[in-house]
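Reply to dn_fold:

You asked what the input looked like. This is it:
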Amino acid sequence: MEYEPVIGLEVHVQLKTKTKVFCGCSTEFGAEPNTQVCPVCLGMPGALPVLNRLVLEYAIRTGLALNCSIREFTKFDRKHYYYPDLPKNFQISQYDLPVAKDGFMEVSTGGKSRRIAIRRAHIEEDAGKLIHEGDHSLVDLNRTGQPLLEIVSEPDIFSPEEAYEYLNNLKSLIQYLGVSDCDMEKGTLRCDANISVRPKGAAGLGTKTEIKNLNSFKAVRDALAFEISRHLALLEAGEKIVQETLLWDDKNARTVPMRSKEEAKDYRYFPEPDLPPFIIGKGQIEAARASIPELPQAKKLRFIREYGLSEYDAGILVSDKNNADYSEARLKAYPGKNKKPVANWIIGPLASLAGGLGRQIWQMDIPVEDFISLIDLVENKQLISNLAGKSVLEKMSGTGKPPGQIIKEDNLAQISDPASLEKEVDGAIQDNPGVCAEIKSGKTNSIMFLVGAVMKRTKGKANPKLVQEIIKRRLS
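and this is what came back:
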């Protein structure tokens, strides 16, 4: 029997507010353990929660960006469970009346675009953090009460790759909205994945397992792929799949059981008695809608339209808002209609250089005019070769010098004098008689070997286009 996987994702986004969701404690990351707490987030008797207005505004804005409908009447509920890092033994969340519901997000995989349905987005408070050391555990409650927005997809994802793209698109959208920094290393973006398999074409769902606390999108993709294989192996062996919660063991690339899976009834939800229901007016919704900036998909289409970029190039440039702003400043500054060289240099050499330095593209402190000047010297004036240009870019980043000064100081100007190049080509031909014989016999691809030989002889300074022309003329 042929089976298909069915995946649903629950993404917890920590909202970027200065104070917690129901009290005035700081949300700053990295403080000493248990120093950012108060009677409210510690659950002391008589302490009453007060909703942070900005949390609600961020939730509405995100819901609208995810094409959700916003409830005009919403409330909070108590979700009961016991963890050592949950001092109240319940979590203030939203159950049957979430702030946003019934949305979708566009995802493209394999050249095809599809809508992933989003069931709901609701506000809740975070729990604390357990730190395990040897045979004991420590509790840090600074994170208790941090504002979370949980975004729950429908079981509408059908491959690990689609899940990976959904998460990337969601992260990008949230960063554009400015409601979270989505830093997985700091725990401000966390994902739980639900997976089941069913006979291909069937309407129902199989027995699901949940993988908790995945700390990277790659881990989500790898864990889902493992679970799909495990489910299929059990079904083919005639065994039952147990509904349970799992953890991902990244070191051994496998899932491990954590506990049996809870149902909603296990949490004993009931309305939060210390918070009244909230009425969200149409004016508040429209104000949130007006605050939404140009989002990644719209920016991508505009980059294609205004700058003549390919869908692939535009998609890479707009995937991060800071990178998109950095890139657009350089696209605008480059003269002429053909902006492809700018995209090539940003996606290629600049991204490679930034990665080697442990930075993002937008953190590369190279003035716009210097970056454009370098591209012009390579692409249009052909003063230096592409290889030398990459070396110049690296020195621009390290020294802050403009490209013209570096080219002059390091004597990197490209050799375009025909007489000088003919001499180097003749030397390369003399050193490689076998390659020359191949070229004369019709194997024109071997010309590039001779071009490389000339580039080596000239330490990368030869004009490769002129070198090719001379080689073809000499061996015709």
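DSSP finds 15 helices and 16 strands in the chain.
Hope that clears it up.
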